[in-house]
Amino acid sequence: MTRASLEKQPKDVAAMFDAVAARYDLTNDILAMGQNRRWRKAVVRAVDPRPGECVLDLAAGTGTSSEPFAAAGAFTVPCDFSQGMLAAGKRRTPWLPFTAGDATRLPFADDSFDAVTVSFGLRNVADPDLALREMLRVTRPGGRLVVCEFSHPTWAPFRTVYTEYLMRALPAVASRVSSSPDAYVYLAESIRAWPDQPALARRVREAGWERPAWRDLTGGVVALHRGFKPGGE
């Protein structure tokens, strides 16, 4: 497999995630030192899923992020463009309605969901701005967006240490535990190249979402961005 580049050709990125699917959740637990579980809980609180609502979970991978929404009573659709991830998820939780889809061309009708969320996937999309507009299209008026993504630590000394971890330690650790270590070199590069919190908030607004805001998690290693679709009551 050719390692995906920062040009983010969809076929290359999908193939990369197909290759890491088998041990993806385990590798993430190790690389994030357990922080990813706290981040997932923060996403669930921000989405605030309610019984009877419809939630679209984009870049859902194996569906780990989708399960809490379903457990809260929301009809939850895990969507991903990696067939390998979807297959791994379907084996683990066959009751979830896993759906193959490209975030820039979502296979859903307008105004279908009460909430749309994407965790650690927006930066892997070839055109994140188009994806944000597609998310807006499939969200009902007044509905909500939650984006959880790696960001830029707010304390400069920690930011330096974090960058060193990304570019040196992360690929080294991944080489021991991942089914495709080269994928984590790309992931480290994509995190470093991703816009900071104010820049992403501007892009959320420019895509048409109202009241964009963010909250830093783990000192800004991750940021939780929110927005609302115009309209509704």
Low-confidence stretches: 1-6
Overall mean pLDDT:
85
Number of domains: 1
Please state the CA-atom Rg, rounded to the nearest Å. Answer: 17 Å
Q: Please indicate the percent range of residues in DSSP E strands (runs of 2 or more).
A: 15-25%
Major sheet strand order? 3-2-1-4-5-7-6
Second rung of CATH, namely the architecture: 3-Layer(aba) Sandwich
Tell me the distance between the termini: 49 Å
The CATH topology corresponds to Rossmann fold
Describe the structure.
The chain has 233 residues and is an alpha/beta fold. The protein has a single domain (10-152, 195-229), classed as Rossmann fold. Helix content is 44%, strand content 20%. The protein has helices at 10-20, 24-31, 35-47, 67-71, 83-92, 128-138, 156-177, 182-193, 197-206; strands at 54-58, 75-80, 99-100, 113-119, 139-150, 210-217, 222-228. The N and C termini lie far apart (49 Å). Mean pLDDT is 85; it is low at 1-6. InterPro entries: SAM-dependent_MTases_sf, UbiE/COQ5_MeTrFase, UbiE/COQ5_MeTrFase_CS. S-adenosyl-L-methionine binds at residues 62, 80, 102-103, 119.
